[in-house]
Amino acid sequence: MSTRRSPQSKRFHNNAVKQQQQKKSVLTVLEERGYINQIAGDRNALDRLLESRKLGFYAGVDPTAPSLHLGHLLPFMVLFWLYHHGHRVVSLVGGATARVGDPSGRLTSRAKTAESVHDTNFKTMFAQLGGLWRNVEAYGQRHGFQDSSNGTRELLDNSSWLDTLNILDFLKLMGNGMRLGTMLGRDTVRNKMEKGDGMSFAEFTYPLLQGWDWWHMYRHHGVQLQIGGSDQYGNIVAGMDAVKYIAQNSASDGIGSQTAEWLDAEGKIKEDMSPMGLTVPLLTTSSGEKFGKSAGNAIWLDRSMTSAFDLYGFLLRSSDDDVERYLKLFTFVPTDEIGKVMGEHAKDPGKRKAQHLLASEVLELVHGRDEAIKTRKEHEVLRAPSLASLKRQDKTDASGDGSNPASSGAERTVLPSSLVLNTPFSRILYHAGIASTKSEGARMIAKGGVYIATAGAPGEGSKLDFHQLRDQKPNEVAGYIIDGVMVFRVGKWKVRVVEVVEDVDFDSRSLHAPGWDEWKAIHPQKHLGLLHSLPSLGLAFGSPIHLFQFRRPSGSGFPASPLSAIPLTTAQEIRQRAAFHHKLVKLAFFHDLTLIQYNDVLRKLHHVPAMGNDDDGQGSPRGFDKVFDRLSDEIGRFDIQSGSSFV
């Protein structure tokens, strides 16, 4: 049977001296930063205890969701501060109590969760808290908390004691001291009984189970104080009553050897051993929305549910009225430094310096410093992107439907040229997954919320210029394709890069885009005519289609083909020939050549075996260009004769 550890230590004393020299107690620091909503117990007594010895605190969370979200951070931030100031802290995951469900602040009962879902949620949250604590260690050191070893921390699961709790022991030790009148008078019970769907016995006993958690940790881990959200004040008070009752009535129940440490001569719990609690404020934005929500959806700490990029973006959108408060609550940045940052921010709010600091600090806390630095750079790129910087991000959405929840940086998608060229921009937004329907695409443009990029100064390194989509015509689309891509921006920050490829390339990569199947059904000849007949020509790799499928062929060369009898033995020559075939197919396809016309062109080019040879007899881009010019002239003649139009 464990006993409470001595709160005295030389390290703690040194830390306390340092705090006294700073003339601010830990409680004062927490109050100044806005962490304290209510204190259950005497405020001055708590302040005195915090400065005189190491205290034990805990904050808990029930795994009723698949991940922690941003709103969960606030009570744990108090734990992080107390830990770095030398106190003993416990993070508790309610593996057992989640099966009951906390009714606090609710008018309806929680939906029952399958056991497999509960187990998955528990494992995820337990691992998240472990990772969060590792980040807290490094984050604290960067902010000057070099004596973090003064504090101790534990991560616990209440299943480890509640799963083996004997119901008779529970009723005997705790049940006798809990009065129904007091329990029925609490706001949670009255509101749910009078305004909600009623309260089950399981929900009614939830505060007792939470009280037993506290008693177990008080006895075995030295936890004297509980930290909770603003809706947990009633549960905290109930837990305080439970711990006091059991401590004062447990002498005859096999744990009397510890009571001397807790009780005074009259059998009452000592003042400096009395359980206490504090709640953090209910955090809302300046517009009244609950913090940690975006359009009603939680901002998750799991990167597979809310990417680091999106988490950064959410914090970057914090209003100027909120950002200073958030910096105090969700970072370790000193308040005087926050004041300086806010002063600089006020001089040029458009740079959002305070918001960038907030987002970087929270990302470091949640996902680590490397991820924070990487994500900040991605966002800075998107504020004034260049084509080269966007191309370096290779997070292409393989499905092509625009959904890429775990992406970082600009989201990317691929579209076939037939869904882009001479197509209204409202439809392009739909095909790219930016709008869910064509009508929504039109509405987005009408509201002025969509921008498209044009090239700035010459060179990929130059910044892109964004222009609002308004009255641009379908025949202007080609002018917005920069080196094979179009770059859209929705609002201030959301950038979508659309790579435009040939239809045959798109299909050979098994990609999909909204509206593509419908387009193929309406234009079967364009899609199937020439391109599906090319393998019969016996071109290099069999056909240009194969060129797209096998970008880096094996072997020392190509077999002979109608296009060339020259074997290609180097990667450079392979790339040149592939580019030639690509241009050839593109030209023929856009001129709607029939297979007969295509063969006739090849026959007229009787000198093709020398294709690609420059003056030195070697394959070269200049040689390929010469042949392509000849081929283009021949195809142009067919175009004039047949009257077909350039698509």
UniProtKB/TrEMBL annotation:
Keyword Transmembrane helix attached: no
Domain named Tyrosyl-tRNA synthetase C-terminal: residues: 408-517
InterPro entries per UniProt: aa-tRNA-synth_I_CS, aa-tRNA-synth_Ic, Rossmann-like_a/b/a_fold, S4_RNA-bd_sf, Tyr-tRNA-ligase, Tyr-tRNA-ligase_bac-type, TyrRSs_C
PROSITE patterns associated with the record: AA_TRNA_LIGASE_I
Catalyses which reaction(s): tRNA(Tyr) + L-tyrosine + ATP = L-tyrosyl-tRNA(Tyr) + AMP + diphosphate + H(+)
GO function terms (MF aspect): ATP binding; RNA binding; tyrosine-tRNA ligase activity
The organism's place on the tree of life at top rank: Eukaryota
Protein EC: 6.1.1.1
Gene Ontology process terms (BP): tyrosyl-tRNA aminoacylation
GO CC aspect terms: cytosol; mitochondrion
Keyword check for Transmembrane helix: no
Region (Disordered): 1-20, 384-411
Keywords: Aminoacyl-tRNA synthetase, ATP-binding, Ligase, Nucleotide-binding, Protein biosynthesis
Family of this protein: Belongs to the class-I aminoacyl-tRNA synthetase family.
NCBIfam families the record matches: tyrS
UniProt-recorded name of the protein: Tyrosine--tRNA ligase
Taxonomic path: Eukaryota, Fungi, Dikarya, Ascomycota, Pezizomycotina
